[in-house]
Hints:
By secondary structure, the protein is an all-alpha fold. Helix content is 67%, strand content 0%. The protein has helices spanning 9-17, 26-41, 46-53, 58-80, 87-93. Helix 2 packs across helix 3 (46-53). The chain starts with 8 loop residues before the first helix and ends with a helix.
Amino acid sequence: MGKRVGLTSDEINRIKIGSEAQGWNHFDATLLRAVDELYTNTFLSDITWKTLTERYDSNQLMDLTFVVGAYNMLAMFLNSFGVQTEECVKNPLE
């Protein structure tokens, strides 16, 4: 699905490695770090917050936080209820 919005195979593989992977620009690495921090700690560190505010306004920061939280909650639901991926969705993801 990432490829449909312009991500390359290299970028997708680097996402799996995280913000420390070689090749990210400073801001993209910060976004990945923000997602990891929100998932792991449920808040953003001061340094990550400061870096994000260099480009994002308050509404965008709220959007980022809510999107990460919503996907985390969706994963909790799907995993807890054992929802299986349907074949019509699974095949395009392979």
